[in-house]
Amino acid sequence: MLEDVPILLSYAPSDAPWAQWIDRSLQAAGHVVKKQPAGVDFADRIAVALSGPDRVIVLVSREHRASESDWAGMPHAPGLVVLLLDSGSPPAALRATNWKSLFELDEEEALEVLMVAVGGPQKPFSRTP
């Protein structure tokens, strides 16, 4: 069942407040979330998750230390969602993926984008997780 499939949430350590908000919001909506700050092997962890049934959300900001080769090595699987936290567009290698921008959205708008990106809530939830 879809609700049993975890969502891997990868983020730069400096984007931890966003990751915490997304984690709480997704859990309140019935999703299982595994948070993983991006480290040197983050692209490999994402590739492994996408090779199975897991879904992956990657938070991208100017603070993310990934190189262009890291981004280029990331598989473009249907389970990959890229959420942009800054103005502009994602790195070139990720522009063909399912990406959405949260930049300058209020909480309600960001929550709507998030829920659409993951296919909606798995259970009824409160908008204030």
List the helices and strands and how they pair.
Layout (H helix, E strand, L loop, with lengths): L6 E5 L4 H13 L4 E5 L4 H10 L3 E6 L7 H5 L7 E5 L13 E4 L5 H11 L12
Parallel strand pairs: 1-2, 1-3, 3-4, 4-5
Organism: Actinoplanes octamycinicus
Protein name: TIR domain-containing protein
Care to describe what's here?
The protein is α/β, with parallel strands linked by helices and 129 residues long. It has a single domain (7-119), classed as Rossmann fold. Helices cover 30% and strands 19% of the residues. It is built from four helices and five strands. The protein has helices at 16-28, 42-51, 68-72, 107-117; strands at 7-11, 33-37, 55-60, 80-84, 98-101. It has a five-stranded parallel beta sheet with strand order 2-1-3-4-5, sandwiched between helices. The model has no long low-confidence stretch (mean pLDDT 87).
Strand content: 15-25%
Count of β-strands: 5
CATH superfamily: Toll/interleukin-1 receptor homology (TIR) domain
Provide the CATH topology. Answer: Rossmann fold
Concise description?
The chain is of the alpha/beta class and 129 residues long.
Task: Describe this protein with a few key phrases.
5-stranded parallel beta sheet, alpha/beta, 129 residues, Rossmann fold, globular
